[in-house]
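Hi everyone, sorry if this is the wrong subforum. Our group has a chain we'd like a structural model of before ordering constructs, and none of us has done structure prediction before. Sequence below.
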Amino acid sequence: MENLEKLLKQILEKQDQMASDISTIKSEMTDMKSEMGSMKSEVAGIKSEMGSMKSEMAGIKSEIQKLNTKVDTLFDKVGENSEKLVELNTKVDKVIDDVEFIKHKEFQNEEDIFKLKKNFLVAK
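Answer:
Right subforum, don't worry. Here is the predicted structure as tokens:
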């Protein structure tokens, strides 16, 4: 009988230990559930922020495309203006040449008139 009581006592001690272990496990599981709830909340926040970032990036991409279009347009206009500038420089160079020629001719004419007057005065 004493063995039986000892055995029952051991069984009860083991059962108490198991109950304590189960209580600890339950407590740890409760803590884990709480932490998982916090993590889910954080993940939801991150997802929300990522959604906002994606939206902002789409807006930024749109603005970049608009800027690229404007830059392309400006580049085309600069090319057109460069062509016109070359034409204008060519015309200005021609006008300068013409003015220099006219000045030269004027000087020659003045010189010829001077010679004619001189010869006319000598001939009188």
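For your construct planning: The chain has a mean pLDDT of 93. The radius of gyration is 52 Å.
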